[in-house]
Design brief:
Elements: H1 3-14, E1 23-26, H2 32-48, E2 53-58, E3 78-79, E4 82-83, H3 84-90, E5 92-93, E6 99-105, E7 108-116, E8 124-125, E9 128-133, E10 136-139, H4 144-151, E11 163-168, H5 170-176, H6 179-185, H7 194-203, E12 207-209, E13 215-218, H8 219-225, E14 241-245, E15 253-258, H9 263-277, E16 280-284, E17 289-293, H10 297-309, E18 321-324, E19 328-334, H11 353-361, H12 371-381, E20 388-391, E21 395-401, H13 411-427, H14 434-441, H15 448-460, E22 464-466, E23 479-481
Parallel strand pairs: 1-2, 14-18
Antiparallel strand pairs: 2-7, 3-4, 5-8, 6-7, 8-9, 9-10, 11-13, 12-13, 14-15, 16-17, 18-19, 19-21, 20-21, 22-23
Length: 484
């Protein structure tokens, strides 16, 4: 937090009539154990009181709230040879990610600890749970009803619900988020007063209002509507990178673009820029020549949307990336898929359902599970090689390939295309046949043996199976995916 935000937060906390279950004031450091008990009690009490954080402040007198200042410096405080924060963290269970800030207020040194509310279980210090009853720290086991409440609290908060920025004024919300775009998406008039705008954003979980009338922008709100993601310390590395290379490898970069806007307001511009960088073929119609992009726009759209929606936001230091080569385009997002890559066409599971849900509402992506179907359908209509979906240790990648003759494809390319064609037929209530596969590859009818060979290789790979194993007719055999 910036010093401005810390100052405003402290003013709000000082305005309370007295310290309470989730706020504790101290004149100065007394003991490391006292801090540990406070971390436990404030974390647990904040959860029960429905606050995201508890606060422990040094340098403020409890009764008068007078600013006294303190000599305590957590950054230099040692317990033996161990740093204080590490000593405290080792004795907390679970190891909550508390933060402390040292800053100047009214020319006095202040230290403020921000402590996340317990989630899913009580926060313990040195094997004991603590709770605050009004302003007194007590052992939690003496209050079984409160203890039960903590065990049934929701589990760890999702990334989308966490705060990207906290304790800001309403005009800062308006300046940081493109609120006009929200109403444009749904074709409804922009409200005539700011309160109505903020209420709508609160109802969508884009922002939250605290007890002092200040606002916090959630990661969901920032990811979707940030005018500039660099204004959000937790989100700037989630901006989309697009890299264009001059060849088939990463040796020489032609140009690079990093998106600065939130996903909802920047998606159309992203697609326009990506499509403008793709190679095009000239098509001669009845009267005019026109350029046709090498890859279908709907495939670009769906894979870009999937890349954003299915990324793992907990993986730091990694952007979603689109890389354009002369022979392919790759979409890479942080995080491994929640389902096997062979089932992308028929199954759906998102780790970011709130993000996905909103992007469906504004027609950025398709309904659940249908996006990859449309990718493969359009790739087949363009007579392109089958997309390749890959999983690495920490990333998921989707690759589209440029035009390629069947004879230039290797066995794996042909088998992958056959399997995807079979899946596409099955989810469309059809069965793959030799004839349908010939159409997929633009194989002449007299060369049906070529399609038969591809089908045999795919059967041997156990990716497809006979629809009717008892049928003796080779000519009219039909095939379905292995999972059908």
């Amino acid at each position: 937090m910036t010093e401005k935000v810390l100052t405003e937060l402290l003013i709000d906390l000082k305005s309370l009539p007295k310290e309470n279950e989730w706020v504790e004031f101290k004149k100065d450091f007394h003991s490391k154990e006292e801090i540990g008990k406070a971390l436990s009690s404030l974390s647990n009490s904040a959860a029960i009181q429905k606050h995201s954080f508890g606060y422990l402040i040094f340098g403020i007198e409890n009764q008068t709230h007078k600013t006294l200042g303190c000599t305590f410096n957590p950054a230099t405080k040692k317990v033996g040879n161990e740093e204080l924060k590490n000593w405290l963290m080792q004795r907390l269970d679970p190891k909550i990610d508390f933060s402390y800030f040292s800053f100047t207020f009214e020319n006095k040194n202040i230290v403020l600890f921000q402590i996340p509310a317990a989630s899913g279980q009580p926060t313990r210090f040195s094997n004991t749970d603590y709770i605050r009853i009004e302003s007194i720290t007590r052992k939690l086991h003496d209050f079984p009803k409160l203890e039960k409440q903590l065990w049934i609290q929701p589990t760890t908060q999702s990334f989308s619900s966490e705060f990207a920025l906290e304790n800001i004024l309403s005009d800062e919300v308006i300046s940081l988020l493109d609120t006009q775009a929200y109403f444009d998406f749904f074709e409804i008039p922009y409200p005539t007063n700011r309160e109505s705008v903020l209420e709508k954003f609160i109802s969508e979980n884009f922002i939250k209002k605290n007890s002092f009338g200040k606002y916090s922008i959630t990661n969901l709100g920032g990811l979707l509507f940030a005018k500039d993601l660099s204004n959000f310390p937790t989100l700037w590395r989630k901006a989309i990178r697009v890299i264009v290379y001059s060849g088939k490898n990463r040796v020489q970069t032609e140009r690079e673009q990093i998106g600065g806007k939130g996903y909802a307001i920047g998606f159309a511009g992203l697609l326009d820029w990506v499509n403008s960088q793709l190679p095009a073929n000239e098509e001669i119609g009845k009267a005019f020549r026109k350029e046709v992009r090498m890859y279908p726009k709907i495939a670009i759209r769906e894979l870009a949307a999937n890349m954003l929606i299915h990324q793992d936001f907990r993986i730091g230091g990694s952007n979603p990336v689109i890389e354009i080569f002369t022979d392919r385009i790759e979409f890479t997002n942080p995080g491994i898929p929640l389902i096997t890559t062979n089932r992308f066409i028929d199954e759906y599971q998102s780790r970011n359902e709130r993000l996905a849900s909103f992007m469906r509402r504004i027609n950025i992506c398709e309904e659940k599970g249908s996006g990859i179907d449309k990718v493969i359908l359009n790739i087949e209509s363009y007579q392109l090689p089958a997309p390749d979906f890959q999983k690495s240790e920490k990333h998921t990648k989707a690759i589209l390939f440029s035009k390629q003759n069947l004879n230039d494809m290797d066995k794996n390319d042909k088998v992958r295309a056959c399997y995807q064609h079979c899946c596409l037929g099955y989810v469309s209530n059809e069965k793959m046949t030799n004839q349908s596969l010939r159409k997929r590859f633009n194989i002449d009818d007299k060369n049906s043996a070529i399609a038969s060979r591809i089908i045999k290789d795919t059967l041997d790979s156990e990716l497809i199976k006979d629809n009717d194993p008892n049928s003796k007719s080779r000519k009219f055999k039909k095939y379905i995916p292995f999972w059908a």
